[in-house]
Specification:
This protein has helices at residues 7-23, 30-50, 165-174, 211-217, 252-269, 292-304, 315-325, 341-354, 368-375, 381-406, 419-432, and strands at 3-5, 56-62, 65-67, 72-80, 86-92, 98-101, 105-109, 114-123, 127-139, 145-160, 194-199, 221-225, 232-238, 246-247, 250-251, 273-279, 283-290, 330-336, 359-365, 410-414. The protein has 436 residues and is of the alpha/beta class. Among the domains are: 56-159, Immunoglobulin-like; 232-432, 3-Layer(aba) Sandwich (Rossmann fold), CATH 3.40.50.
Length: 436
C-alpha cells in the first residue's frame, strides 16, 4: 500500500507545529498541542486503515500506430470497485520524445461506476515506442492521506509519418471539396484523353467549352480530359546531416516523409506508380515504383524507420544510381537541404544529368529561424551583424533556387509546414500540363 499526505494534512500539521512552537513561550497550552497532535495522528491512522486494498481498475485504449507531429488520442477508463465516491488524479507514464496534452487528468467516479478520460500524445520522432504504467491517486475518507495505485499497462506503439493526412485528403475528395492550398484534388489531363462533360467553372479554358452541348443545355459545358496514368514517381529523400534540422520540433526528414507519403497517395489513386529512394554519402535503399494499395503500404513501411545521419550528401552518386535503376521516364522528387555552396553546385549538376530523360523536382525547405533573424528589429550593433548575416544566407539560397531553375529542374522552395500541400499541388500541375 502506498499512501501520500494531502494538502489538508500539510495544513493541519502546520497548525499543530505552530501551536507547539507557541507553547514554548506561553505556559499552560501544552495540553492543547498534545491533543491536536493526537487528533492528527488518529485521523491519519483512520485514513491509512481505509486505504487498504485496491479500489480502481484501469484500462487504456490507444491506436497501434501513431502519427509523428499529430495529436493522437488516448483514452483511460477507470472503474471504481468501492462503495464510495472517489475523487483524484490520473497520470500515464510519458512516451519517449513526445508531448502530452490533458494530463494529469482529474476524475470523480461514483460507487461501482466508471469514467473515461481522454488525453493526446504528439510524438516528435518516428520509431517504436512503449506506453508504460498508469498511476491513479485519490483521497481517502478523512482527506489527510491519498492512496496511490500504479497499474502496469505496457503497450508497444509504432510512430509513423503522418498517416492521417491522406485520410483527410480522401475525405475532402469524397465531399467534392477543394483545399485552398492544394487546389483541385482531381487530376485532370491535357487535350487527348476525353473523360466526360461537366458544367463550366470559373477558370476553365474557353477552348475546352463544348458549344454544341452548351447549346442543347442552354448553359456552358466543358470537356474534361483524363490524365495519363501508369507513370513513375520516385521520391528521393536525402538522409544526410542537412535533414537533421528542426521546425516546430519536427525534423526536416519527417516533414519530407509526410509530404512524400501524401503525394504518393494522390499519385497512386490517380493510377500512377510510386517508389522511394534514400541516400546520403551513398545510396541507402531503393523501393521500385509500384501501384495500387499495396504500393502505399510498402511506402509507409519503408518510411517508418528512416532517419537522418551525420554523413555529407553525395548527389552525383545518388542520381547516377537512380538513372541506372529507372530506364522509363519518371518524375524524381528530390527532398534535400543545402548547407554550403559546393553542395549546391553538386546538386545542380546531378539534377541536370537526369534531363531530358527524366523530370526532376527539387524540394527545398526554408529555415524559418534565419528568416526571422533577417527581419528582426535592430537594437544594437550585434543585432545589425546578425541581421546582415541572415540576409546574406537568404540571398545565397535564392541564388541556389535560380540556378536550379536555370538548369531546367522544377523547384519547390517552401517553409516546412507548407511543403505537403504545395507538393501535392505541384504534382497535380505536372500531370495537368502533361510534363511527365
Amino acid at each position: 500500500m502506498v499512501v501520500v499526505p494531502t494538502r489538508r494534512f500539510v495544513a493541519v500539521a502546520f497548525v499543530a507545529t505552530a501551536i507547539a512552537t507557541l507553547a514554548g513561550f506561553v505556559p499552560g497550552i501544552d495540553p492543547a498541542w498534545i491533543a491536536l497532535d493526537g487528533l492528527v495522528v488518529s485521523m491519519a491512522a483512520v485514513d491509512a486503515l481505509f486505504g487498504r486494498g485496491r479500489r480502481v481498475e484501469v484500462e487504456r485504449k490507444a491506436a497501434q500506430i501513431f502519427s509523428v507531429g499529430r495529436a493522437n488520442p488516448v483514452v483511460l477508463t477507470l472503474h471504481n470497485k468501492s462503495d464510495r465516491v472517489l475523487r483524484g488524479t490520473v497520470m500515464d507514464d510519458p512516451l519517449a520524445e513526445a508531448t502530452t496534452d490533458g494530463l494529469p487528468g482529474h476524475f470523480e467516479i461514483p460507487p461501482h461506476g466508471s469514467v473515461a478520460l481522454r488525453y493526446e500524445i504528439t510524438p516528435k520522432r518516428r520509431g517504436k515506442r512503449t506506453l508504460g504504467a498508469v498511476t491513479v491517486r485519490y483521497s481517502l475518507p478523512l482527506g489527510l492521506l491519498a492512496r496511490q495505485e500504479r497499474t502496469e499497462l505496457s503497450q508497444d506503439v509504432d510512430v509513423y509519418p503522418d498517416v492521417h493526412a491522406a485520410r483527410a485528403l480522401e475525405m475532402l475528395r469524397r465531399q467534392g471539396r477543394d483545399d485552398a492550398r492544394v487546389g483541385s484534388l482531381r487530376v485532370r489531363g491535357g487535350d487527348t484523353e476525353f473523360e466526360r462533360l461537366r458544367p463550366y467553372r470559373v477558370g476553365d479554358e474557353i477552348r475546352h467549352v463544348d458549344w454544341r452541348a452548351s447549346a442543347r443545355r442552354d448553359d456552358l459545358v466543358v470537356r474534361q480530359y483524363q490524365a495519363e496514368s501508369n507513370q513513375n514517381v520516385v521520391f528521393a529523400i536525402d538522409t544526410g546531416r542537412g535533414m537533421r534540422g528542426e521546425s516546430n520540433g519536427i525534423t526536416s526528414i519527417d516533414h519530407a516523409l509526410g509530404a512524400a507519403l501524401l503525394t504518393a497517395d494522390v499519385a497512386l489513386r490517380g493510377g500512377d506508380r510510386a517508389g522511394l529512394f534514400t541516400f546520403d554519402d551513398k545510396p541507402r535503399s531503393f523501393l521500385r515504383p509500384t501501384g495500387g494499395r499495396s504500393g502505399g503500404r510498402k511506402l509507409t513501411r519503408a518510411a517508418h524507420a528512416l532517419d537522418a545521419g551525420l554523413s555529407a550528401t553525395d548527389y552525383r552518386t545518388a542520381m547516377v544510381f537512380l538513372k541506372t535503376q529507372m530506364k522509363a521516364r519518371s518524375l524524381f522528387v528530390v527532398f534535400t537541404n543545402l548547407l554550403e555552396p559546393r553542395s549546391a553546385r553538386d546538386l545542380a549538376a546531378a539534377v541536370k544529368s537526369l534531363m531530358p530523360r527524366h523530370l526532376p523536382l527539387c524540394v527545398l525547405m526554408r529555415d524559418e529561424e534565419v528568416e526571422t533573424l533577417a527581419t528582426a528589429p535592430i537594437t544594437s550593433e550585434e543585432d545589425a551583424l546578425v541581421r546582415a548575416a541572415a540576409g546574406e544566407s537568404l540571398a545565397w539560397r535564392d541564388g541556389i533556387v535560380r540556378s536550379l531553375k536555370n538548369s531546367g529542374a522544377l523547384v519547390l522552395d517552401a517553409r516546412p509546414h507548407e511543403v505537403t500541400p504545395l507538393l501535392v499541388k505541384r504534382y497535380l500541375e505536372v500531370k495537368a500540363r502533361r510534363l511527365l
